[in-house]
């Protein structure tokens, strides 16, 4: 079968530096922590928020038929705005879960309750953000969701693009797909940064967004999850599909915070796996 054009074009435009394998203890199978039940709040929230958001924002949705109706699936999307994690569940034909900062669930008083109920209602799972063990714990949570046959939404870029360009993908999504065997549905979001730009307090209702679901990607031909080369090539295939859907300009770099000291600058220059 000839290789899709987008898979040939993306690596040409974005250099795919092959990253070394992560330590063996970072990819070993282990006990998976149980996933917190979403309960009635999620069921009611999905029943109210989804039709209300569709009515107000009238999103243009393409490719819903590409989404598997049952079984584990990973939505891998570009990331432009805070509301991306609302746009995907609203547009998808099945419930979708994503990880959110645990601080959204830990507030006190009435405002804390509102935040907790809202994020639960849209399918968020609280996690501690960070590198090292926190990142591995997040992967464990996502794997647990997939093992229960659920759908999860992830952003290979790692964080929102502040300039609208598509940044290089980190390999955590590919690792999860290769480890679990879950298909990856690429998602291209267009216009969410117009509806709610970075720093905006409330979303605008004068703009429409587009959500494009691509054909599912089966990535096992790249190799096992323990191979750094397999994770890198699988990530490039995912990002190529996202690029074909979103049409964004390519940044040719990782979306990383500016280095504030010499140690950070050295870490960004040296080869390492950006998971």
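^ Assign residues to that structure.
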């Amino acid at each position: 079968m000839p290789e899709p054009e987008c898979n040939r074009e993306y690596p040409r435009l974005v250099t795919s530096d092959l990253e070394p394998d992560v330590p063996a203890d970072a990819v070993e199978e282990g006990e998976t922590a149980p996933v917190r039940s979403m309960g009635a709040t999620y069921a009611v929230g999905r029943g109210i928020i989804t039709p209300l958001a569709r009515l107000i924002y009238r999103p243009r949705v393409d490719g819903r038929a590409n989404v598997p109706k049952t079984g584990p699936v990973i939505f891998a999307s570009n990331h432009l705005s805070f509301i991306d994690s609302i746009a995907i569940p609203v547009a998808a034909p099945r419930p979708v879960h994503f990880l959110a900062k645990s601080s959204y669930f830990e507030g006190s008083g009435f405002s804390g309750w509102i935040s907790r109920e809202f994020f639960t209602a849209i399918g968020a799972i609280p996690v501690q953000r960070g590198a090292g063990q926190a990142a591995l714990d997040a992967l464990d949570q996502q794997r647990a969701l997939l093992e229960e046959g659920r759908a999860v939404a992830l952003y290979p870029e790692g964080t929102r693009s502040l300039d609208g360009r598509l940044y290089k993908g980190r390999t955590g999504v590919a690792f999860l797909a290769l480890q679990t065997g879950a298909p990856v549905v690429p998602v291209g979001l267009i216009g969410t940064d117009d509806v709610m730009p970075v720093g905006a307090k409330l979303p605008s209702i004068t703009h429409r967004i587009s959500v494009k679901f691509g054909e599912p990607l089966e990535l096992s031909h790249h190799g096992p999850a323990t191979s750094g080369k397999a994770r890198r090539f699988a990530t490039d295939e995912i990002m190529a599909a996202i690029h074909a859907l979103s049409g964004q300009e390519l940044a040719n770099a990782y979306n990383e915070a500016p280095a504030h000291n010499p140690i950070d600058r050295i870490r960004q220059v040296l080869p390492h796996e950006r998971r």
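The longest strand covers residues 184-190.
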